[in-house]
Amino acid sequence: MATTSETNAGSNLQVDFVVQYSFGDVDQPKAIEQLQKLLQTLAGVGLQTEVRQGDEASLLIFVRASKNQLKRAVYRSRVRDWLYGIRHAEPEPADAIDPDNETEAERLRVIEHMITLPTHEGGAGITPQHGEWKNVMAVFPLHDQETNGQWMREWSQKTFLSEDDLDQIRNKFGESVGFYFSFLQAYFRFLIFPAVFGFGCWFLLGGYSIIYAIVNSLWCIIFVEYWKRQEVDLRCRWQTKGVSAVQTKRRQFKPEKEVRDESTGEVRGVFPATKRMQRQLLQIPFALLAATALGVIIATCFAIEIFIAELYNGPLKSYLVFIPTILVSALVPTMSAVLVSIATKLNDYENHETNDAYDVALTQKVFVINFMTSYLPVFLTAFVYVPFASRIVPYLDVFRLTVRPFVSKEHSNAKRSNFQIDPARLRNQVIYFTVTAQIVGLAMETVVPYIKQHAFRKYKAYNKKRNGKAEGNGEKDSPERPLHVVFDDPAEEVKFLTRVRNEVELPEYEVTDDLREMCIQFGYLALFSPVWPLVPCSFFANNWVELRSDFFKICNEFRRPTPLRSDTIGPWLDTLGFLSWTGSITSAALVYMFSGNAQQGPNGEPTDIKGWALLLSIFFSEHLYLAIQYVVQVSMIKLEPTNARKERAERYLMRKRYLESTLSAQNDDETPANAFEVPGLSRAALEEEARQSTLQETDPAERFWMRQQGWKESAQVGTGIIQAQTSGTTKKQQ
Amino acid sequence: MATTSETNAGSNLQVDFVVQYSFGDVDQPKAIEQLQKLLQTLAGVGLQTEVRQGDEASLLIFVRASKNQLKRAVYRSRVRDWLYGIRHAEPEPADAIDPDNETEAERLRVIEHMITLPTHEGGAGITPQHGEWKNVMAVFPLHDQETNGQWMREWSQKTFLSEDDLDQIRNKFGESVGFYFSFLQAYFRFLIFPAVFGFGCWFLLGGYSIIYAIVNSLWCIIFVEYWKRQEVDLRCRWQTKGVSAVQTKRRQFKPEKEVRDESTGEVRGVFPATKRMQRQLLQIPFALLAATALGVIIATCFAIEIFIAELYNGPLKSYLVFIPTILVSALVPTMSAVLVSIATKLNDYENHETNDAYDVALTQKVFVINFMTSYLPVFLTAFVYVPFASRIVPYLDVFRLTVRPFVSKEHSNAKRSNFQIDPARLRNQVIYFTVTAQIVGLAMETVVPYIKQHAFRKYKAYNKKRNGKAEGNGEKDSPERPLHVVFDDPAEEVKFLTRVRNEVELPEYEVTDDLREMCIQFGYLALFSPVWPLVPCSFFANNWVELRSDFFKICNEFRRPTPLRSDTIGPWLDTLGFLSWTGSITSAALVYMFSGNAQQGPNGEPTDIKGWALLLSIFFSEHLYLAIQYVVQVSMIKLEPTNARKERAERYLMRKRYLESTLSAQNDDETPANAFEVPGLSRAALEEEARQSTLQETDPAERFWMRQQGWKESAQVGTGIIQAQTSGTTKKQQ
Prior knowledge:
- The structure is a homodimer.
- The first copy, chain A, is globular, with a radius of gyration of 36 Å.
- Chain A is built from 24 helices and 6 strands.
- The first copy, chain A, folds into 3 domains: 17-142, no CATH class; 150-257 and 276-463 and 498-647, no CATH class; 681-733, no CATH class.
- Helices cover 65% and strands 5% of the residues of chain A.
- By secondary structure, the first copy, chain A, is mainly alpha-helical.
């Protein structure tokens, strides 16, 4: 197992895709038969294969597309795009395509389609982990370690990624990941302004400044609308406009009935939209359930926390203060996991037809959970604790019953009357969520998995060694899978195959998780940043790291994602809009309630909050927000993005060329100017005669049109009338 | 001038268009030269012409397209549509087009394009009332009197127009008018439900019923969203999807600079969008000005009215009560006209590039004026008069100063303390606007112009006769235009030409005015119908007549409109949405303020209106509205309209055919299944040898891919590994 001959382990040896074939849980003859079928099918669509050993119960099938087959597949894919209106120009013929000139993303996408598309669409019809091919565990490309490393080094030395860098990401990982990084980059660059402005406001005006709140809301509107426009731009630059039209069906989709489409003659499974909508009504109880379950947990822990921190004064206080934190950390993720699994079941039940629709629906459901876990604690502090604490806190005596043994009665009574709302609590909470939690999150998603992964590999290697020694001792802890795999690799491939085996074990990357993280972050900015105007500064610093660490994560902690095309960041765009809108409400409320620090009551609560004034400021703020949003939207539409203009120009050119050719073709064969003119005098005389005769006979319309022949006669008649009329006038005037 | 020979005056004698050429205000030789040029130009694009006398100072040029030229123009127009993505299938060649099979709307539109399009786009470049062609006063088609009359008779006997009827309207008058009638029909049909439900509510619950308000809001949401979907459907049925892409430039557009487009090489006038936006900022002061000017007038008249009706008790009261009505009737239309002319100037100043953009911008500005004049009086009654009257009314003593001579002091004092808010005022006002004003409006727009028109014709005929007698008396009241026109018409054309001369004098039809009327009507329903639930009944009856009278109006009181294509009712769609949204606010406020009739104070005003409760109900109502609207929108999107599905099926078929042909072409020339297989044994042996040798030499990737040749070898290797592994396991298990 030692490395011997020297080959470049970073190179992928021209491997396009790796297919992991598992034979652990089927009979040997069946496994062999299925393997043969798999290889034959792959060869059938023009893919070259090499088989190597995977782990104990799987094979690695390396796949490479032959140049000719690839050319054709690329051509076919482009024709399809053209027919669906994604490409504007008819694609050049297959022979003119040089696969080496195409982007890696297109190459990989096309090959993945060759492997997975159904046979009637020209693919091999291999469906990993599903149906006939359930032994095919995974189909994925290999990381390009050299380029990845190089990019990491380059990016760590600059502040902003260039357009070119983003294009490179898209070329390597596909448009879906490209859109995420573009969004992150746009968001990061946009954060400069609120970071600087927020710092100024914090320095000069402190928290709850109305100026900061207005500017922040405006910034949110402009950013969201800017990003919508940017999506249009990227869509044109990356030629993915309308790409969602070419959607492949979800394999799990269960049609209710087979319907033969009358016009196309195609038989296809149909699930009525109305029935799906009825099922979707379950979302309402689900949202209520999620809100209640999480709300109860969070509110209870919150109440315990307040009780311990501000009322309880018994023994062990310094330890007890950790109880609510521990409870929240334990209960909220558990409940979230339960709710997410319910949401997934609900989503499955809704039986969506395409993967996109499925993802959008799931995102919406999960967003309810995210919203509760992320923002509810701050909402509770701002809109329940601060205004109502003095009324609610006495009821917290419920907890006192449980701790009665530890508290002396007098002590507690004394404390109660002294109860003071902690005015800094809200700010501290916002700081916790926007600084501490962000850093912890970064560590949890990047550093921890990396350490875990390495530890796991070490453990595996150690275990293997130990088992190698202990072999024959009759250990039965995993009877199906012997732990002593002797890899019979060619010496020069050892490094390469080790790397591939490691990549196989990595999980699949989901760009939606990263997008969610960013949207939730944006939410803190939109909803609560007036509390502490340094929030955007924190996010600005955080996102510089985030961009790099996410890239690092994709390269090292996940299998390389198959390039997916996309023309948007999807449902998250709506989420951004929703959060920004809600921000206009919370900002107004926060500023109204907390900006006049002087008018605090004896317990630290703001005394003169008037219901109608609060609601009126919310009403104005919200409608002002909506009006400005409308204006910004309308203005943005009128500023056409560069690439959209370019695309329009291209289409215009194509049209012009075509129109010119049809026009010239027509002008050649007739000179219409003379179409109604009489060619010669003699003939004119003849026709005049004929006309006079027909005037008597034919129908009125013919007679009408026969009176003047050619424009010259019309002109004569007209001249006559003009002369008659004007001379009449002149005569009269004289 | 008497009618002699009998021809059918209703028939149009195959005339496609009439061009009115005026020669009244130019020199005779110039007029003749220009006429010749006009006729030559028309002939140049293949149009046949006949000239007849118009009135004293104009000619009528009758235009007919030759069959061949029309074929070509239709083909060219369809090619353009195809290139812009409006048609899906490539149009059949020009020779295959039978112009008689096409709709009249297409025929007329194409001929109009032949006349008016610039020469480089294949038209004659005639621009009525503009530049070189300023003597061309009008270009319009003739009414098809026979069909119009027949339709009027048919429609007066049925309740609903069928889809076919709407298609007929579209075929005759173009999509723009077709969309209006479809909208009116959809709105009319949708009114059944609120009419029935409203009647029930009125009977059982009276006004201000929360149930009615909720149902009404829901109905508004559903109607607006239904109509959006219906637009998609109509757009597919009438093939006008994306028709706004083919827009002709406004002639009045003044480019700031000429820019040569780098990619297309086309030089075109450009006006920067940012500069236009700056100019559009003037809309804000304009809106404020309009609101203030109209607001002051309406509020003042309102105050005077209250003063006279409820405070004043002096002499002449029965006459004085009419003063405010007279003032409103005089001042509001005057001010509106002034404001509209300002809006038009502003709009001109904004320098829009296309006619569509111009119309949209103007509609938005005029809507502010309409909103004020239509709804402000009711707003004032509901939200100022009723809640605040007892506080405001004393200030109305200002008016008392002016009438002091007539009122005895004691009398007025006694009256003041007795002041009672008239609780029925709001209801009466709503009834006035939704019943009386509708009927008056109908009469004003249909009956009055009809009578005026006939009276004017009679007057003209009378005048002509009188002048004929008085000729030579040296009357100089209109020296430029002699009133004694002797029409030298061929006897059989007299009737026809008389009709044409009448049509020339009619104004141009603007579909946007009719749409505005309907939207304003919808506004009363959305905003105020909870006051008096019979509103939808009134509108239902009104709109049955409206649909017929509008058609009558188009046929008899306007020139036949040139068919315009359109894929929407335009900016009015947004207006509907806006009104429906505002309705959710006003309904909540009205129901909260007035539903508890029992709790009225001594002066008749509701006593316990609490600011926070009012605002809270508005807040909930509005957000509930928006949430439901979102759900309805999402659901509607999922229900695909019939014609959209058909269209999709057609495109699918086209794609499938094309893809199949490319696929089969490829399969012919290669059988990829054997691409990597070794054809014969002997050759295999040879290659094996070659492979072994290359394994030593070439680069690692080549060596990697050389190890297994063809899928069969891969299968063998894989089988070997599986056997080794599984037998190992089996051994161990034993």
